[in-house]
Amino acid sequence: MEPRYEDALDLAARKLRRAIPLAAREPAIPYGSEGPRFTPPPYDGNSWWTAGFWPALMWQMYALGGDNAFLQEARRAQALLGEQLRRFTLLHHDVGFMYLLSDGADFKLTGDESARVDTLHAATLLMGRFNPAGFVRAWNGPDQAGVVIIDCMMNIPLLFWATRQTGDPRFARAACIHADTTLRAFIRPDGSACHIVELDPNTGARVREPGGQGYGPGSSWSRGQAWALYGFTLAAINAGSDAYREAAGRIARYFIQNIRPDGLTDCDFRQPPTPERIDNIAGAVAACGLIELARLTGEDDYAAAARRLLDGLIAHCCDPDPDHPGLLTRCTASYHDDRAGVHTNILYGDYFFVEALCKLKGTDPMLWT
Ligand code: GLY
Hints:
With about 375 residues, this protein is mainly alpha-helical. The chain is built from 13 helices and 8 strands. The protein is globular and about 55 Å long. The mean pLDDT is about 100.
């Protein structure tokens, strides 16, 4: 691995090792950071969809160096995630993000049986959200029975995982039906993706496309593009599907055209020129997807684009202060929601940045497949 990537990964490992006692003192699983302090989830405490990324960072570090302190901290956070699984009411389709990267990672790396059982519980919960009209329901609101969001392409790897674990094909079948619907209802001819689509919960017919976390209806929220890119790449790997691989390629080419000259990623590819609004999480997620897509297709252009993104992050947005637990600056949760964080450190950005670096290093345990 080139020295600049090695240095960035060393920095991450040092910060995370130092941050363990700090995280253990927090009432909630850390969400982000400001200077030397962690920040809590903006909504729903440990049921917030991001709660699995802190243990996921610990598992990437454990896979990198075998340090048991990372394993112990991951399990401390997983005990809190287990409470949310039993509480149930605030969970929704994002159990894929939450449990595959925490308990699922634990089982993958250590073989721990209780971690496997919690991951299977989460997969069963996700399967329970499958609507036979052709999609996995996103959220829980009374008027949201037909609401689907592009992010769910990153949750369905949990369903593929459950089929591999149990031998029951229903989980993977539901995942493929959901991916087919997403391809039809979300991916535009130019390779961009909408964030939210409302479907008729009885027929699956497309009803409308409301605005989401991007600039507005019809815009192109960059993290949504990154979820589509990485999500279809993972679906192609998990299902061995040419159609998903081709879709991932189309989405990737669109994303690559929109990378800024400095290698950073605007929050929405169709946002107005001012105010400047960057989301480095999108760049880190896309880098992971592009590295995997390059492996899947043998096309080096995707790997080169991933390096452009990582180089931009390293050159402009990597906080070198060892007393600050966060790595990436200028992460933006949502174009219009300041409460969840604008131009700040958000730990799931750090997770995907670290995952991409670990892919280059050759230690990424590939928690999604
Ligand atoms: N899954 C929600 C987001 O990307 O912010």
